[in-house]
Prior knowledge:
Distance between the termini: 51 Å
Strand order of the largest sheet: 1-2
Radius of gyration: 16 Å
Structural class: mainly alpha
CATH topology: Hypothetical protein af1432
Strand content: 5-15%
Largest sheet: 2 strands, antiparallel
Number of helices: 9
Amino acid sequence: METKFKDLTNYIISLGAADINHSDKTYLAHAISVYNDMKEWGGNDALCRAALFHSIYGTQGFQSFTLPMDRQPELLGLIGDYAEKIAFANCFMERSSFDAQLGKFEGPYPIRHRITNEEFVLSKDEYEDLIRIHLCDWLEQVEREKKWDYRRAAYRQMAERLGGIALTSYDQVFAREPKLA
């Protein structure tokens, strides 16, 4: 994919989404942080592009900006099929159906669409890349959101499943959780 990072961020700006509030940051700042964290985790170009656009269509927890689905072809052209597929999955997954698959180590992985209730199916690699994006996104914002207990067991299971830098990052972030007096 030959699209430059500046072209990707300019696209978000052109949508009018850059300054929308997202977890006590701007949408653009959060998206860039998730992109940079994914790069630090060793994500390839497609996964880093998916990280930048991880919530472009809105998610179960974020609805302040949603790219209309009739604009999906332009996003596909900008970030590529694989990155868009993972971003789409992150945006439209019904989280309980995603979480229910965490202990399953062979595909396929059927995930329920949070709006249509239909299933879309991911391969093992796609599912694990979705885990990477979803966990990376949460770790970037949980400290600002102060929702330490939100799906804690599921996020811990994601970190343990991925291991390596994902587990290290999880442990580092959650070590900063304020202790109750």
